[in-house]
């Protein structure tokens, strides 16, 4: 027979602890941590799948690039053959001719008339940069001009007009020639970028 001790009989000295609220808090915390873990695992799996897709795309594009490089090598070897050199040079010449004809000389002189001072004349004009690029209805070319004037300070006025114009870009004087007995004008060679609006 078990003897009753004061510790067993007196519940007032050691009352039951309220552990139910603590256990519920711990359970909710564990559930939240479990949900966070599941979300993180899902994110990791999603990122792995996305990375695998990107690796597949990179590999496909690398294969396509290698195919294109092989084709380019084949085309280059065909163009490098001596019997094709004449055809290639004729093609380059015709493309340059088309690029030159895409610039209207009438429009060039009309646009120059708006910026060239009255006491100056354009004596020579060339298009050394043959690859005229058309972009949005605008031909971008480089003009190489020789201008003559009786006043050396007129070239400064011309450069200011060119740079303030929306059709012309930055201009530079390449060289100059003083007047001679046969030609009383100062000569300046000017290079300027030109955007012809079509």
Describe this structure in words.
This protein is an alpha+beta fold. It has two domains: 20-80; 104-197, General secretion pathway protein M, EpsM (Gyrase A, domain 2, 2-Layer Sandwich), CATH 3.30.1360. 53% of the residues lie in helices and 22% in strands. The protein has five helices and five strands; from the N terminus they run ααααβββαββ. The chain has helices spanning 6-9, 20-79, 82-101, 105-113, 154-164, and strands at 120-126, 133-134, 138-149, 168-177, 186-197. The N and C termini lie far apart (117 Å). The mean pLDDT is 81.
How are the SSEs ordered, and which strands pair?
Layout: H1 6-9, H2 20-79, H3 82-101, H4 105-113, E1 120-126, E2 133-134, E3 138-149, H5 154-164, E4 168-177, E5 186-197
Antiparallel strand pairs: 1-3, 2-3, 3-5, 4-5
CATH architecture of the largest domain: 2-Layer Sandwich
Q: How many E strands?
A: 5
- CATH homology superfamily of the largest domain: General secretion pathway protein M, EpsM
- Briefly note the structural class of the backbone: alpha+beta
CATH domain class name of the largest domain: Alpha Beta
* CATH fold-level assignment of the largest domain: Gyrase A, domain 2
Query: What's the story with the biggest beta sheet?
Result: 5 strands, antiparallel
Number of helices: 5
Q: What's the N-to-C terminus distance?
A: 117 Å
Poorly predicted ranges (pLDDT <50, ≥5 residues)?
Answer: none
In terms of quaternary structure, the protein is single chain
Strand content: 15-25%
Elements, N to C (H/E): HHHHEEEHEE
In total, how many domains does the architecture comprise? 2
Radius of gyration over all CA atoms, rounded? 42 Å
The average pLDDT is 81
Q: What is the 3D shape?
A: elongated
**Residues in helices, as a percent range:** 40-55%
């Amino acid at each position: 027979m078990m003897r009753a001790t004061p510790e067993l009989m007196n519940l007032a000295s050691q009352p039951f602890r309220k552990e139910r609220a603590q256990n519920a808090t711990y359970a909710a915390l564990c559930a939240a941590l479990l949900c966070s873990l599941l979300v993180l695992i899902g994110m990791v799996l999603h990122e792995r799948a996305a990375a695998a897709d990107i690796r597949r795309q990179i590999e496909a594009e690398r294969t396509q690039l290698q195919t294109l490089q092989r084709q380019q090598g084949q085309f280059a070897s065909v163009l490098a053959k001596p019997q094709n050199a004449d055809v290639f040079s004729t093609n380059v010449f015709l493309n340059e001719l088309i690029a030159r004809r895409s610039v209207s000389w009438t429009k060039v002189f009309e646009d120059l008339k708006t910026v060239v001072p009255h006491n100056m004349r354009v004596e020579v004009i060339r298009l050394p940069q043959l690859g005229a690029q058309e972009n949005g209805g605008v031909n971008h070319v480089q003009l190489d001009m020789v201008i003559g004037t009786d006043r050396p300070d007129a070239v400064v006025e011309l450069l200011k007009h060119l740079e303030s114009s929306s059709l012309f870009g930055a201009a530079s004087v390449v060289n100059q020639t003083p007047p001679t007995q046969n030609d009383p004008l100062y000569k300046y060679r000017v290079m300027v970028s030109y955007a012809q609006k079509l």
